[in-house]
Design a protein that fits this description.
heterodimer; A: alpha+beta; 2 domains; 6-stranded mixed sheet; 5-stranded antiparallel sheet; 10 helices; globular; B: mainly alpha; MetI-like fold; 11 helices; about 80% helix
Chain lengths: ~375, ~220
């Protein structure tokens, strides 16, 4: 293995848990493994840590091989310099916060351990809680002790296994900010496992979408959510506006492609490589759906106008989640969100007639969803 | 009051738990964490002394340890005396018949430790030995303690197997339980009563201490 900086992983096996994933993560980079439960993301993380042994693959960190099935190399977990934050935190219940952090410091000189551990607890805003046991800490505090313990080992890779799933929403927001700050100070690869897309978008530089142990797409959160490679990825990412259509023509002078969707013609971003007559799936992110102001027409409304009936209006905080049933295809609602004041000003309510524009640049074409995926 | 018999019983119980402790850790931990074919049979074998009548169990041990058996001959060749009707023979028998009392609580003790906790220990850089000492044993401690107390108390009270394998040689194999039986046979009810009361007091004290300690540990680990 060449002396590559960062983490590189290839894991493959057919059973008992199918795995087929190759990825790398550079120092200072946060890579999110995103997928539904059972997609193998935790198993991949445990493979990196050495707690799970996949049948085939290679795992190397900063040029050092931790696992290589061809050469029968399998470094035991305790000899891999990983910092792991477990979903349940897995703090040692019989030790204090300080004890938990110091338990990971076998490599540090004994005299320095206490001060190093106190320093880490301070870094994670846990000063004053050194002598508390995990049972005496809140969820957020336990999570921070787990992060401090993971860093105490002076790891070469930081692994986070759904670390925010067990804390309440406000604590989670605070922890996101702390982790985001912390990662700047740590120049190591960080692999984050999560099923929460928002979490991945907020924290990750790149994300890999996993399904049944296989990586379907890797890219920046923006690229993956705007341009999923398949309807399957779009569904895994919980993108709601995924529909089927047929390409009817191209408008090269305006860099547009025209598709037919349930009888309606829509212009999309130019995709001249897709043959006319091809069946496609298409997706439009919420942010490219523009609500028309009622009773006042404007120029932008000529772009892919879709009239319909408001079905649900759900206020979440200062935002309203809206579903619109198009007149021509009531069974295929379009989802989008607008600020709550827009809802009030426009008198939007369930049952009200309204129209939206689907901005052409936001419409992304994908290979058609197969029968199997539809199930 | 047969002080020699009491001392012998205490010595036998002490040596038993001393030797059973490491055996229990190895076997209990193995049964808790490993999955292998024949695990059910192994667990059944370990539990066998719980259900087998002591005289039956004692009979088999007597045959297995006897001068005609390979084990008996091996022992004779090694130490120049036979294994049955000696303190050592009694000790070996005691370890075997206490296996379920020691291993089962230890196994449960190890089983309650979440797999993530053990993975976390490895991810903290702890070698398996260090993880055992720093994480597993402290967390499985209530199980260890229960195992040792049960084995100790059970050794003090065991009668049938001791009689079969050891007989009743004063200072060598006559435990307090045998001594009580002897005294009753000799219509010495006063001595039998004293010894029984003493055994009752010891058992009660030990078991109370364990309960109190377990509760304290339970609170600590919350």
């Amino acid at each position: 293995m060449s002396a590559v900086e960062g983490l590189s992983v290839t894991v493959r096996q057919a059973a008992p848990i199918p795995l087929d994933a190759t990825f790398s993560c550079a120092p200072g980079e946060v890579l999110a493994l995103v997928g539904p439960s059972g997609s193998g993301k935790s198993t991949i993380l445990r493979s990196i840590a050495g707690a799970y042994r996949p049948q085939r693959g290679t795992i190397a960190v900063n040029g050092e091989t931790w696992m290589c099935s061809e050469d029968s190399v399998h470094l035991p977990a305790h000899r891999r310099a990983v910092g792991m934050v477990f979903q349940s935190y897995a703090l040692f219940p019989h030790m204090t916060s300080l004890g938990n952090v110091m338990a990971a410091m076998a490599l540090s000189p004994p005299r320095e351990r206490t001060s190093l551990a106190r320093g880490l607890l301070e870094l994670l805003h846990l000063s004053g809680l050194e002598d508390r046991r995990p049972a005496e800490l809140s969820g957020g505090q336990q999570q921070r002790v787990a992060v401090a313990r993971a860093l105490a080992r002076q790891p070469e890779v930081l692994l986070l296994d759904e670390p925010f799933s067990a804390v309440d929403k406000s604590t989670r927001q605070r922890l996101y900010r702390e982790i985001a700050q912390l990662r700047r100070a740590l120049n190591m690869p960080v692999v984050l496992v999560t099923h929460d897309l928002d979490e991945a978008i907020m924290l990750a530089d790149r994300m890999a979408v996993l399904h049944r142990g296989r990586i379907l797409q890797t890219g920046t959160p923006e690229a993956v959510t705007m341009k999923p490679v398949s309807a399957e990825v779009a569904r895994l990412l919980d993108l709601r506006n995924v529909f089927d259509g047929t390409v009817t023509g191209h408008l090269p002078e305006r860099d547009r492609t025209v598709i037919e969707w349930a009888g309606m013609m829509l212009e999309t971003a130019g995709r001249s490589e897709v043959a006319v007559g091809s069946r496609v799936s298409w997706v439009i992110p919420d942010s490219f759906v523009v609500l028309h102001r009622r009773g006042r027409r404007s120029r932008g409304e000529r772009e892919n106008p879709v009239p319909g009936t408001m079905e649900t209006v759900l206020a979440i905080g200062q935002t309203a989640q809206i579903a619109l049933r198009p007149q021509h295809a009531p069974q295929q609602p379009i989802h989008f969100s607008v600020p709550l004041h827009v809802v009030r000003r426009n008198g939007i309510a369930p049952g009200v007639e309204a129209a939206v524009s689907l901005l052409a640049v936001g419409i992304h074409l994908m290979p058609p969803a197969t029968e199997r995926e539809g199930i | 009051m047969d002080w020699t018999a009491l001392w012998l019983s205490l010595r036998l119980a002490a040596f038993t738990i001393l030797l059973l402790f490491p055996i229990g850790i190895v076997l209990g931990r193995f049964l808790a964490y490993r999955h292998f074919t024949g695990k059910g049979v192994t667990e059944a074998l370990v539990a066998l002394p719980l259900v087998l009548p002591p005289t039956v169990f004692g009979y088999y041990l007597l045959v297995a340890f006897g001068a005609a058996s390979p084990i008996g001959r091996f022992w004779q060749a090694l130490f120049g005396h036979q294994l049955v009707f000696t303190f050592e023979g009694l000790l070996v028998a005691s370890i075997i018949f206490n296996l379920p009392f020691a291993i089962q609580p230890m196994q449960r003790g190890f089983e309650v430790i979440a797999p993530e906790i053990r993975e976390a220990a490895a991810c903290c850089g702890m070698s398996p030995w260090r993880a055992l000492l720093k994480v597993e044993l402290p967390l499985a401690w209530p199980g260890m303690l229960t195992a040792m107390v049960l084995s100790f108390a059970h050794t003090l009270g065991e009668f049938g197997i001791v009689l079969m394998v050891g007989g009743s040689i004063p200072g060598e194999t006559r435990t307090i339980a045998i001594a009580i039986y002897d005294r009753v046979q000799a219509f010495d009810n006063a001595a039998a009563g004293q010894m029984s009361a003493l055994l009752l007091a010891i058992s009660l004290a030990v078991i109370s201490l364990t309960f109190a300690f377990s509760r304290r540990v339970g609170r600590r680990l919350g």
